[in-house]
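Re: that backbone. Tokens:
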């Protein structure tokens, strides 16, 4: 039987989300997102780099009502993840690259897609309304919607932070013509998160005075709090960009070959998932597997398509492809601590793939420039 009222429907939807494995569910308004002007300013400054799709019809992206006419409400779901700590001997090995945690396991689009489809079908059946569901694929500002739905606050690293799950979460958004009253944003709810306690005191759901993420960014992409300049961001260059990674983004990269977690791994909120008293029941643990999470740079350089698909089966890396992953491995050779880098760079310069060769040329010139700068001037 369908829920009799909007409050009954909201309760039924929260329960159904939990049954399907989602850790959190919230409801956002059908109105345009409150911080639309900040997004427009971000675009105007060119901080979206080569992600031109973000600048197409930006007014539509800030107003979900333009995506689904007759919008009555927005449901935002959070999928909680807890990652095993890397083996220090492997993670610190200078011969290995690093994969961002979100790509350690199967592609999150595939993991969330099936339960999301069931949830959307139930919502449509119970409400009689039309629904559209997205997992990081729609013309929407997911983090803004999640904030207005009460699923967390926006951190200085520009990521959504849930007080019980940190930023290690994925979001799903369902637009519906059903009338669903919105929840209250986390900060507006009094800034003290329900149930969170530290040493017997309530914890404020915000970054407070913490600025660790800003200092941790290896390329200075977080020059301003709450804003990422993709033109300097390793995640942009190693995942989204199809061109050579520029010299100014090399050298301090800590051997990241797919994404970068530096601004998240330093965040105190991301340590809370290790505590059983605050860990969501639906949290999914992701194991650390060296071959998938910290592959050897030489192996990536020499990898063929068959090996790539076997090692990274069902991973989000398949979307980026071997050619760009190999480019990223070559870019990591600019890190001064990598032993034998000159020989690997020379090998990359002979590689049949033009992107690999072009990246190797940039790395070689950068290393040569740095070596010349460190050479004492003869009197």
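Recovered sequence:
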């Amino acid at each position: 039987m369908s829920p009799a009222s909007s409050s009954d429907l909201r309760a039924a939807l929260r329960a159904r989300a939990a049954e399907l494995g989602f850790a959190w569910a919230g409801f956002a308004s059908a109105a345009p997102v409150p911080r639309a002007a900040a997004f427009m300013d971000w675009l105007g400054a060119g901080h979206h780099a080569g992600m031109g799709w973000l600048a197409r019809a930006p007014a539509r992206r800030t107003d979900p009502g333009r995506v689904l006419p007759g919008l009555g409400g927005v449901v935002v779901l959070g999928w909680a993840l807890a990652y095993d700590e890397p083996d220090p001997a492997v993670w610190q090995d200078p011969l290995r690259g690093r994969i961002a945690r979100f790509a350690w396991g199967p592609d999150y689009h595939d993991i969330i897609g099936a339960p999301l489809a069931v949830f959307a079908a139930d919502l449509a059946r119970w409400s009689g309304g039309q629904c559209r569901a997205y997992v990081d694929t729609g013309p929407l500002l997911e983090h803004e919607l999640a904030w207005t739905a009460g699923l967390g606050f926006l951190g200085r690293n520009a990521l959504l932070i849930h007080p019980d799950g940190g930023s290690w979460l994925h979001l799903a958004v369902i637009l519906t013509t059903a009338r669903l009253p919105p929840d209250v944003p986390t900060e507006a709810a009094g800034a003290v998160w329900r149930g969170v306690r530290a040493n017997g005191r309530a914890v404020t759901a915000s970054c407070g005075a913490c600025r660790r993420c800003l200092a941790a960014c290896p390329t200075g992409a977080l020059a301003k709090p709450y804003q990422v300049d993709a033109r300097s961001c390793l995640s942009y260059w190693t995942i989204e960009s199809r061109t050579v990674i520029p010299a100014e983004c090399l050298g301090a990269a800590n051997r990241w070959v797919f994404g970068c977690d530096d601004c998240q791994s330093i965040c105190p909120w991301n340590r809370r998932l290790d505590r059983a008293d605050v860990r969501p029941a639906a949290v999914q643990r992701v194991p650390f597997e060296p071959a998938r999470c910290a592959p050897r740079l030489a192996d990536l350089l020499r990898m063929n398509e068959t090996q790539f698909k076997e090692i990274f089966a069902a991973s989000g890396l398949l979307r980026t492809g071997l050619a760009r992953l190999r480019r990223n491995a070559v870019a990591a050779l600019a890190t001064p601590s990598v032993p034998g880098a000159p020989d690997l760079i020379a090998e990359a310069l002979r590689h049949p793939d033009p992107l690999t060769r072009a990246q190797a040329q940039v790395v070689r010139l950068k290393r040569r420039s740095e070596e010349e700068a460190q050479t004492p001037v003869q009197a």
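The first strand starts at residue 24 and ends at 28. Confidence is low (pLDDT under 50) at residues 188-202.
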